[in-house]
Design brief:
With about 450 residues, this protein is mainly α. The chain has 17 helices and 15 strands. It is globular. Bound molecules: alpha-D-glucopyranose (GLC). The site of alpha-D-glucopyranose (GLC) has 6 residues, from helix 2.
Length: about 450
């Protein structure tokens, strides 16, 4: 099939995934043809829809995005958190569905209370803010964000995210599996993906909040947190050979304010694979940082979004792309690209995933290859002017996606097998491909999710 036909096939499939509510398009289902057991793949997931939204915006179809933003805002939780098994105020749902009662349509939202293992989708409200800004940038429809409900909704999210709980760090403390990886994977505490999305959401809020007296203290809180969060992530999450050398020679158990080993990371916790794997010229942001714990795994969404949103400096962005280029077969393999590297195996898999059979080594969230991540790789390559990597990645995807019926994920050390339990015709695989193609042919579209270097 010709490349042009692939794009039009993807556009047709994306249209087929649209969900209507009172006759208006408001979202897209997670998978058009979920197969296996349907579970919740017939719902519209907030994080998945971001890709559909970017694909619609680039195709001059802003209406569905506007409707989505309005409807999801109306679903936002407002309940004071008296019953701790209910979502707290500010939370956005993981997913929603159109249901019928007495022949009347209504929206049924899931805040994690139905989801497997009952995980709260912390990333939903962050993606929602990022998408709202992208929509306004694409359409210039500022009247939408000036509406009282929108200003209040934005502030409610910020209040929830900025509230001071039991934290010594500016990063956000979250439970395991509270984002794209929505199962137990040792990604609790301060996982990179959440922190980068938090950073982007704070930067988006600064543009979205009207500058008036009522918002002044909220904007001030955002600015303060942004400064300390940015410093913390750039300073302490970064790993390259120099930094690894420092960590390797750290002293432990230092007491006091001005200590080198602030988080008490012991050199013995550096995994053996890393010392050989890290190339001379590459670097990346660690997967997590907490007391006595640095997760050295490479996580793709966090690292690539750090490039796109300018959380990573120009030089760090170059280093991340150098790493991807030099470790291409590990990180990209046959399908762009791995969700994280390396996989947890053996005893580590038992202890960290709780023996999760869906997350066995090199499958699904545990080192599987997710075609939706193509757009991030292409976006980061575009931003750092490494177009040859973008073209290479798109070609890999084009060779297989359509033939394999747009799977959700691939398995194996280099992503050669269609995922064991992967859904076919997964919407964000389709939309991610369209967004990647759009970014290449029209780099302006990347601006919708980019921020300037500060
Ligand atoms: C799985 C993924 C999650 C995604 C959902 C719908 O639960 O882990 O990230 O949003 O499927 O595609």
């Amino acid at each position: 099939m010709k490349k042009h036909d692939l794009v039009s096939e993807a556009r047709t499939l994306l249209e087929k995934s649209i969900i209507y509510y009172h006759g208006r398009p408001i979202g897209t289902v997670a998978a058009i043809n979920p197969g296996l057991s349907v579970l919740n793949y017939d719902q519209c997931f907030v994080r998945d829809f971001v890709l559909s939204a970017l694909a619609f915006l680039s195709n001059n179809q802003p209406e569905i995005v506007r409707n989505f933003l309005i409807e999801t805002l109306s679903l936002q939780s407002h309940e004071p958190n008296i019953d701790s098994f209910k979502p707290g105020p500010g939370l956005m749902p993981a997913s929603f569905k159109v249901e019928l009662q007495d022949r009347e349509e209504y929206l049924d939202a899931d805040f994690g209370e139905h989801a497997i293992a009952k995980v709260p989708p912390v990333d939903s409200c962050l993606w929602w803010l990022i998408l709202l800004r992208a929509y306004v940038k694409a359409t210039g429809d500022i009247s939408l964000i000036h509406q009282r409900e929108f200003q209040q909704g934005i502030k409610l999210i910020l209040q929830m995210c900025l509230v001071h709980r039991f934290a010594m760090y500016p990063t956000m403390l979250v439970p395991d599996g509270s984002f794209m990886i929505d199962r137990r994977m040792g990604v609790y505490e301060h996982p990179l993906e959440i922190q980068v999305l938090f950073y982007a959401a704070l930067r988006a809020s600064k543009e979205l909040l009207s500058a008036n007296e009522e918002n002044a203290s909220c904007i001030c809180g955002v600015n303060q947190r942004l400064a300390s969060l940015t410093y913390h992530l750039r300073q302490y999450y970064w790993i390259d050979l120099n930094r690894l050398n420092e960590i390797y020679r750290f002293k432990g158990d230092e007491f006091g304010k001005e200590v080198a080993n602030r988080f008490n990371i012991y050199a013995d916790s550096i995994p053996t694979w890393l010392t050989e794997w890290l190339p001379e010229t590459g670097g990346y942001l660690a997967g997590n940082l907490g007391p006595g714990r640095m997760d050295f795994r490479f996580f793709t969404v966090g690292n690539l979004m750090a490039i796109i949103t300018s959380l990573a400096s120009k030089q760090e962005s170059e280093c991340i792309m150098d790493l991807i280029e030099q470790r291409w077969s590990d990180l990209v393999g046959y399908m762009p690209m791995k969700i994280c590297f390396p996989a947890l195996e053996g005893m580590e898999w038992r202890l960290i995933t709780g023996c999760d059979p869906k997350n066995i080594a090199w499958s699904y969230h545990n080192g599987g290859n997710w075609p939706v991540l193509l757009w991030l790789l292409v976006g980061a390559a575009q931003k750092t002017n490494r177009l040859e990597l973008a073209y290479k990645a798109i070609e890999l995807a084009e060779n297989r996606l359509m033939r394999d019926e747009w799977p959700e994920y691939y398995d194996g050390k280099n992503g050669r097998l269609i995922g064991k339990e992967a859904r076919k015709f997964q919407t964000w695989t389709i939309a991610g491909y369209l967004v990647a193609k759009e970014i290449i042919s029209n780099p302006m579209y990347l601006e919708l999710v980019c921020f300037d270097f500060d």
